[in-house]
Amino acid sequence: MRVLWVCNRCLPVVAAHLNMDAGNKEGWLAGLSERILAENNDKLTLGVCFPAGKDLAGWKGDYEVTAYGFYEDTAHPERYDEKLEERMQEIVNDFKPDMVHIFGTEFPHTLAMVRAFNNPSKTLIGIQGLCFVYADAYLEGLPEEVVKRSTLRDVLKKDSILDQQKKFYRRGAYEQKALALTGNVTGRTDWDYHYTKECNANVKYYFMNETLRSNFYDGAWDYKTCEKYSIFVSQGDYPIKGLHFLLRAMKDVLEEYPDTKVYVAGNCITGDDSFKKKIKMASYGKYLKELIDKYKLTEHIVFLGNLNAEQMKQRYLGSNVFVSPSTMENSPNSVGEAMILGVPVISTRVGGVHNLLEDQKEGILYEPQNVQALANAIIKVFDAYEYEDASRMRPIRVKEEEIEEIRAYPVRARKHAMATHNPDTNYHRLLEIYEDICKCE
């Protein structure tokens, strides 16, 4: 089988040879590609294409994969360039795939490849997030004055919060067109099943879980060695990730645990310690900064910047609890990473999260926008693990009979995640899907 992958970014194994930046997002794809290449399966010939600064002709390194780059304005994914279809046609003509597997729908190149390949029965789209659904949740929990205002940066870039929501809707329109034109999708939640079927009632839906980055399968969280009263959030640089809810919840958390710290990975958008940074601050970043000032959180918030896989792993292991306060998700890999390491998990009950983690058995799920429920959940986890500390000087909120149960959540979650993200199972499932699609006439 000749399978052409269309990815949102260059795979690490390819980037290392081309001296390119692979970034730290969509790390699960790195795990899957590493497994395929390690197997050296003579039944599967792999080609990959991805956005690059310029078109990259078919390049083959010292391993069995052919790489192609295509130019795409990834800074403006709400814009569709029909010329991209021509480039996709060139790649298809050169590689001559039996099928095309497109990872994600969030960028215009998905629709461009679907149109260029023009073979629905041999086209497979892997659902990650869905912009047209995320757009509806984009403004949740934001004050009206924050939504309507524009900073200097927002005006210059035409990128206010309302503009950002409109861009998500435009991207979503491309997604819906691509899904309507494909014959096959992979997904893993009842949420993505519902929305893909809504776009294309005739699409063939294949269930397949994701494989995490390889380093997350080793190591396990231990309360004794973590930083007590520390919270880890994997990203918070745009409204859907819900960092504003966690900042608001910190008021109650700090009343009970004044030493609490929040560590946030990813881009820091609240920096205003220089004139240049103030000019670049977006309205959402300004709102986060206002919350930090309002609740006196400066000493309690640490923005870590972009972290590589090992740095992310160590931050998970070093934290008392992982929190996902998003207003919408499908099946966030950050939750899976925390689960597989055995870190206590608190998440909003949104999208397909409940397919990853069972509430009150493997972690705590709470209703989105419920700031009080989030604060109570964090306090409950801290209470459960601090219970035996004789030096504490305040009452414990959690019921004594709940303590062992809460401590058992991460153990069960780890077991569940080991099955969900099992590399062998997921690899063989992928091959089954490819074989099923390729045999179709």
- Counting H and I runs of at least 4 residues, what is the number of helices? 18
Shape: globular
Average pLDDT confidence is 91
Arrangement of strands in the largest sheet: 3-4-2-1-5-6-7-8
Please describe the biggest sheet, giving its number of strands, its sense, and whether it closes into a barrel. 8 strands, mixed
Cα-based radius of gyration, to the nearest Å: 22 Å
Our measurement of the CA-to-CA distance between the termini, rounded to an integer number of angstroms, reads 14 Å
Strand content: 15-25%
Helix content: 40-55%
Provide the structure class. Answer: alpha/beta
Given as residue ranges, the uncertain stretches (5+ residues, pLDDT < 50) are none
Number of strands: 14
How would you portray this structure in words?
With 441 residues, the chain is an alpha/beta fold. Helix content is 44%, strand content 15%. It has 18 helices and 14 strands. It has helices spanning 12-18, 27-39, 83-95, 109-117, 131-134, 144-148, 152-157, 161-181, 190-199, 243-256, 275-280, 283-294, 309-317, 333-341, 353-356, 371-386, 400-420, 423-438; strands at residues 2-6, 45-52, 56-60, 65-71, 99-103, 123-126, 184-187, 204-207, 230-233, 261-265, 301-305, 321-324, 345-348, 364-366. An 8-stranded mixed β-sheet has the order 3-4-2-1-5-6-7-8, sandwiched between helices. A 6-stranded parallel β-sheet has the order 11-10-9-12-13-14, with helices on both faces. α4 links the parallel β5 and β6. The relative contact order is 0.11. The mean pLDDT is 91.
